[in-house]
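Appendix B, example 12.
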Amino acid sequence: MSIKIAIGSDHAGFELKEQLIAYLKVKNNTVIDKGCYSAERADYPDYGHAVATAVLNKEVEFGILMCGSGNGINITANKHKGIRAALCWNHEIAALARQHNDANILVLPARYMSVEEAHKCIDVFLTEKFEGGRHQERVAKIDI
């Protein structure tokens, strides 16, 4: 099944982003690269906002973001009402982000994870379903 995904990073996540774009395309997904486009210094808010906007405007089903620690770009994306960006450092956390939090953006700490673990996080994030129920009640309380 092909999924349309927006992806973005700052300079610290650029190399991982490029590897993940190739991985996602091999799995027949449509990938929209929102930048950055080189390893030169780049400001994470620019790309966090771009991917969050693409998700909110329904240009894509999901977003994937990365910066050095994942924190800055995660904080940026979560400033958008309706975005539920989840910083995930392993595939178990990525699964829970989808199952319990209905996360719509996966955030990865590029300097602190292997490409292999990033692949696992992506695979789980894109296949797990939101469980709803008691979790829906909690998610409904997020946006103010």
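The longest strand covers residues 4-9. The mean pLDDT is 98.
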